[in-house]
Amino acid sequence: MITRAAPSRPPRRSPHARAAPLWLAVLLAAFGGMLNALAFPGLGWWPLAFVGTPLILYSLVGRRVGPSLLVGLAGGLVFWGTHIFWITVYLGAAPWLALGGLQSVFFAIGCALIALAWRFGDRALPGPVGQLLVLPLLIAGLWTLREFVTTTWPYGGFSWGRLAFSQSESPFAELAAWVGVAGLSFLIAWVSALVVQAQRVRAATLASGAGRRRILRSVLPVGLLLVMIAVPAFPVVASGSLRVAAVQGDSDAGLFAEYERGQILDDHLAATEPLYGQDIDLLVWPENASDLDPLRSARSAAALDRVTEQAGAPLIVGTITEDGADTYNSLLLWQEGGRGPADQYDKLHPVPFAEYIPDRDFWYPLAPDLLSLIPRDFSIGERDNVFDIDGLATAGLAICYDIVDDNLIRQMIADGADIIISPTNNADFGRSDESVQQLAIARLRAIETGRSVVNASTVGTSAIIAPDGSTLERLPTFTPGTMLQDVPLSTTTTPATVVGQGIEIAVSVLALLGLILTGLLARRRRTGEGLSRG
What we know:
The protein is α/β, with parallel strands linked by helices. It has helices at about 20-40, 50-60, 65-85, 85-90, 95-125, 130-150, 175-205, 210-215, 220-230, 265-270, 300-310, 360-365, 370, 405-415, 435-450, 495-500, 500-534, and strands at about 240-250, 280-285, 315-325, 325-335, 340-345, 385-390, 395, 420-425, 455, 465, 470-475, 480-490.
């Protein structure tokens, strides 16, 4: 009697880690980087972030560390080269290439970690829970880890270009109040990783003739997006209002601008005149609006006395101050009635290689012609970043790049800020995308903190933003003008301000530990399979 052996069942496999050809992966990553750049202002086509990010993540599937670094570098160079092209208006190609290149290296390292996660996860997490829940969460966490590192290091980091900042005009912006900027980046990366993994699962199940139930798992990213959209806006309760006037002087205040001393001050004096006779609680001028330091210039001090007297309100004014050997990018709270300055804020996060040269003895000899264009080093301030506005409000202060720094935003909220004042000088960047990208960040900060933001620029883009992210008033760029609004105040505590950096740190640490654990599990499984074959 002849018996037939039962057909052997093929081994159960997770979606195979078959990598796309390297040339194709490089093109996909580069294209994904371009789409992500277009998701940010100026174009602001925010849905593209949900296309570009999955393309980048897919290009890393099945890659080893060396090729993944190349793929990540391609995606990073295209993204950063496009996203911060405005730097070329400031100092030309050299700083653009330097900063874009550095960020691209960080991007490539982050991509290498993600590639490892794909490889380890495909072997160590074969089931549907592992493939469609754990692995996408791990990938998103590693993306968040890379953003966390680059926003804090080196020299305070460079927080521009985070995924969340592409969503200031999207329906997902409201999530910033719940999970913060880092949490929103994590959610976008999670959706993107789930898109890739769901399509891999779908392809594998179709090829194996699996049933409809498994194929339905491919719609999981849609379900997650619907959940994100369904989350309601966090309720912000107004605690009052402050009648704020902001001035845009349209001053030629760029680094290489040729102007007579006092001209920028005169431009803002002239632009302020239409406000005289109005009911005002606070007058706001931009960063460096007084090119003569009123603490050392009698002419400037007298001019500010006249402005506050005629406006009938205190003035927040940007200027450059000195204290011994230290030079600061400062804001002064100038009192009405000839009483002079009541408070001073010195910028806590001057921009490295723009406002100062860190470790000058090391860096200067490497590029003396370029770095000599930075004639002085601004010192790092030590004062708190809030002003008491005559007992009417507590204003959180963010000079230009300060608005990007998570820690400074948390600091001002902890100190009781119920409104955020963000004076800035965008004259160095011409008509590029820099000012609208900065305004998008300010808008997301308003939502995240539940605070109105007054963004006053020398040349634009100037706007007053409500706590829900809506624009109360906005001025056209390169045009003198004023804004006057009853601006909502709020002491609401959003979940994002309570949790603070906790979400970002927890996600980053768990992602790193998860990568290590998954790698150990993958190694054990590979060893076990080798023994069974032997």
